[in-house]
Amino acid sequence: MRAAAAAIAAHEAELSALDAAIGDGDHGANLRRGFSAVAVTAEQLVADGVQPGPFLVEVGGTLISSVGGAAGPLYGTALRSAGKALSGPAADTAAVGAALRAGLDALCRLGGAQVGDKTMVDAFAPAVGAFQSAADQDLATAALRAAAAAEEGMRATTPLRARKGRASYLGERSIGHQDPGATSTALMFRALAESLTP
Ligand code: ADP
Ligand code: MG
Ligand code: MG
User: Fold this and answer.
1) ipTM score here?
2) Is-above-0.95 flag for pTM?
3) Which among 60, 108, 158, 174 is least surrounded, fewest beta carbons within 10 Å?
């Protein structure tokens, strides 16, 4: 969460510029506000010794309540559902992969988007697939593969026509622009990979 908050803060302007092209220009500011709040919540939860599952449920709730835009409830719901899928003080790669899958499923249920709709799902879904394909590897290896898959999915949103969210109002004119939510998803998976790499 620290690494994600730092990555979002470092890329705030870029995320908002992407959103200005096909949305309302607030994606960077929305997430910067949300992850600033998450960073504070997270430090307190760590100090309290809260376990990984309840930790994710709690920070997901913080995102939902601190972000006005569509992305906050979507990411917050994903984190909450991932947290509910984790139990105990530690998790191996297979357990984290299953938790990520539960998070993605909840996000898709809430937003109704599928791969190809030009949303964060286009980065999130391949990332979860790559993570789960590396279930027999260590966490850092799985996270590195997930980050690479998220970045590929992110770049693949450029030629797509948006079918969900604000960008869908543009119809054909959404073609040729990279999706801001897919971009923030890729940043978060890269942050996860870097924080797990020794
Ligand atoms: P808003 O559109 O409310 O201003 P943001 O700018 O914070 O919200 O987030 C926009 C991003 O949210 C989009 O780039 C897209 O990736 C994602 N998004 C929007 N609607 C959906 C949806 N229904 N399902 C999945 N992702 C979505
Ligand atoms: Mg926006
Ligand atoms: Mg908005």
Assistant:
1) 0.99
2) yes
3) 158
